[in-house]
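anyone seen this seq b4? input:
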Amino acid sequence: MCPLSPVDSLGTSLILASQSPRRRQLLTDAGYDFKVIAPSDEVERGICSSCSPEDTVLEGAFLKARAIAKGVSEGLILAADTVAECRGEVLGKPVDRDHAERMLRLMSGKAHRVLTGVCLWDCPSNRRVCFLEQTVLKMDDLSSEQLEGILDSDSWVGKAGAFGYQDGLDWLHVQSGLESNVVGLPVERLPGWIESFKKGA
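predicted toks r here
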């Protein structure tokens, strides 16, 4: 369980800027006390074709945190953005079944990265910092039957890369990095990041 002292010592509340139930569950399971203020759908932006995967998630996290900071008088805002990347192609949330199928076919039998950008934003000082976390996964070769089953299940909906590692998938294997990062929030890193942020005050 992650210690609460780094947040408590800031003398402020922790605010999760996310609509994701998976991020909420990760924070809850880690023992954090927090409230949720989700950014509007308009803040969720598309993939920038000219941006690197790293820049994409860092900017996404920053924009989410900034959107919430505009309406918060006090608190430490935690925002995150996650994408998958395979062979140079950034894979966000699929827009429909065909898009999900194309993503899964691209990753089938290959290693790929999951990147999460995390932004900590203090109110009212507006001091902020962003962090980046990477996990490398290997996907098994998916048969036509497996692929159809995944697509029919709708388990890909709303998930970067068209998969949810937290669903206990036996065709995905972590090669390096944190499993929590694949789910959407590297909670094991938070105590150190929050402490570092506090010391930078």
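Helices lie at 5-8, 21-29, 53-69, 97-107, 144-153, 179-183, 190-199. The first strand starts at residue 14 and ends at 16. kinda curious what u guys think
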